[in-house]
Amino acid sequence: MHDLTVITTLAGALAVALVLGAITHRLGLSTLIGYILAGIVVGPFTPGFVADARLAQQMAEIGVILLMFGVGMHFHPQELLRVWRIAVPGAVGQSVVAGVAGFFAAKALGWSSIAGVVLGMSLAVASTVVLMRMLVQQDKLGSRDGHVVVGWLIVEDLFTVVALVVLPALAAGGTPGETGKEIAIAIGKAGVLAAIIWGVGTRLVAPVMERIARTRSSELFTLTVFVVALGVAIFAAEVFHVSVALGAFFAGLVVGQSRIGPQAAADMAPFTDVFSALFFVSIGMLFNPAVLASQPLMFAMALTVVLVVKPLVALVIVLALRDTLRTALTVAVGLAQIGEFSFILAGLGVSLKVFPQEGSDLLVATAIVSIALNPLLFRAMPWMEKQFGKPRRIKLDSAERREAAADQEPEGATTKAQAATAVVLCGLNELGHRFLQRCRQSGVPVTVVDSHLERLEAWRDSDVATVFGDAARAEVLEAANVASARAIVLTSGALHEKMRTCAIARRLNPRIAILATAESEAERAWLNEFGVQFVSSIHDEMSDALLRAVRRVL
User: Of 54, 250, 373, 538, which one has the greatest count of Cβ atoms within 10 A?
Assistant: First the structure.
């Protein structure tokens, strides 16, 4: 008789997650709620099928590694530098106030100081997954408001990384002097680990990955990225005795800053989706609904911190920094939830035996409620903006003025205005190469996307921005900044690849103009169906050129 425990756990947990995720998505809620509810359904505190909690926890660890690896790959310092005047002081102030509020809430109920610190940090950080999805759905990701929120998230992500380093040192206990020494040692170990990973990664791992990318073997490239993510996480845990999440973040940072970063993120996306779902399912499996009945006051206090304290503090800080009401509301509403980072911090606290399991249960319940309410708060933003008054005019620097102009520019913009934003060229074949040269001669800025690394080599030291990867993947188009581009041009690829690129580009930027080439009338018809405004038929253009030549001869 075969032991089917692993298969049964995977199949049962993922099947329930699929059903409940589809239901919550249908209701206009985040699928993360469905995954957590699926964990509750297959957990030991509800009747019916019970998945193996030990196996679920091990697979959830892979989910944590891939989540933090993804955070590292998507960590772009330029996003923070663009809006640092608001994001840095705002995120610091909001995190401190929310953390202190959570700390005193825990102390009021008799919890230990270290448990209060863990609860405060867990309530202070928002879910990147939830907020990024909401920004895309609200068409705000490429706007200035979206950039401010993304910069804010980057600062909070850095807080999470610091917490992963400091928390084990705090858990060791001892006198203040001993605790300070432990924290200094932990930070020193993390610094050495980061230096080793960065040095080895940039000089060995990244070149090896580029060499594998040149083979154009997608399976080998994906396997390489997966091995790097898991291998570095295990190395960090076994050699430096830090969390696997911290090692995965550093590994993602190295891969993300390399030329193959966007394609690596795209290839890892399916694995991240599956194991992240298992991560949230495992969180739900540990949730005991009875805690809500025994700790109603703590649940109410946690909800108050997340839904009232955090948004109000963010709103006041952004307005105090003399930014617009619209930006303040976007930040405030976006931060009114908690998610994966809260569970990672709470899980670390539970494993270190400094955070009670009922605290983790309260965080799960708080996450379910706050994530469910977040879309409703975003939909109420126009009403809130109207009620609270008109947005103030603020003084922007030159980069911010260009972004604001791009956000407010009408559809019938002039050629000069279009030149202020990028055109994304997908495919650097012979036609794409000629098109790129003509754009440079005309002063039109272009970002090139191509899956052939050798084609991009010629433009490596030029002023042309290049992105390696498959243009039919959302992560690659995001790296090419499609969200703020005025046009995307498709010069190569099969029909299904072009259609997928069109759909993703339209989702990331509903206002973008799409231009493409077609090899037949059928392909032209399909591209028109997928929202391509201008389709150039290669055969039509060549026949017209031949006809002009024949007329000249005659």
Answer: 250
Strand pairing of 513-518 and 423-426? unpaired
Residue with tokens 């040192």: 169
Residue 494 burial by Cβ neighbours in a 10 Å radius (0-12, 13-18, 19+): exposed
Q: Give CA–CA dist 241/394, Å, rounded.
A: 48
Q: Quote the CA–CA distance of 481 and 503 in Å, as a whole number.
A: 15
Angle between helices 325-334 and 310-320 (to 10 degrees): 150
Residue recorded with tokens 């790296």: 479
Q: How far apart are CA 32 and CA 130, in angstroms?
A: 8
pLDDT in tens, 93-112: 999 999 999 999 999 888 99
Q: Which amino acid is at 322?
A: R
Provide the pLDDT for residue 188. Answer: 86
Question: In the block, which residue shows the tokens 């591209």?
Answer: 527
Q: Which two tokens stand for residue 449?
A: 């996307």
Tokens of 67: 């989540």
State CA 57 to chain mean position distance.
23
Contact 492, 436 (CB under 8 A): no
Q: How does pLDDT run across 416-434, given as a tens digit for each residue? A: 333 345 799 999 888 888 8
Return the structure tokens found at 554.
């005659």
Structure tokens at 259: 């030329």
> What is d(CA 166, CA 329) in angstroms, rounded to the nearest whole number?
32
Amino acid at 299: F
